[in-house]
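Sat 14:20. Reprocessing the chain from the morning session after the first attempt stalled halfway. Input below, unchanged.
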Amino acid sequence: MSFINLDESITKNKLSSANLVKSGSSGNFFASSSGDVAVTNLSATIITSGKPVLITLEPSTAAGVDKYLRGTGIAATLALLKNNSGGPGLVEVSRMSLIGDVYYPPSAMQFIVPGLDAGTHTFYIYAGTSTTMSVYVYNVRLVALELS
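Finished this time. Tokens:
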């Protein structure tokens, strides 16, 4: 009987690189007009192999600076949209309600987008408001990570 000498150590050089992209910072974004409005700088383009993609938000600034999601009114929302691979325009993937004038951490917005074709996909965050509500998106960035 012979034994195979396996190298069971995990090193950085042995790991595959992550397919990860990050957007710029939203800065201090505020919307109160009626309808869906693109949040400043919250778009990211990722080239995938067809595996699911995790979409989340993360803080984009140093400690001591406000980083949050907040809606006022009863139906303020943040929507995740992506480019329409079958034609022009954008397609809504999911929507998150910001209810009750609560300050949400950026990581409260997380989606896994399954069933993507291999290729280039651009994701966007839009704020949904009306004249009786507002949306605040302070110092966050969009992160897209292809899952393995």
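The chain has no helices and twelve strands.
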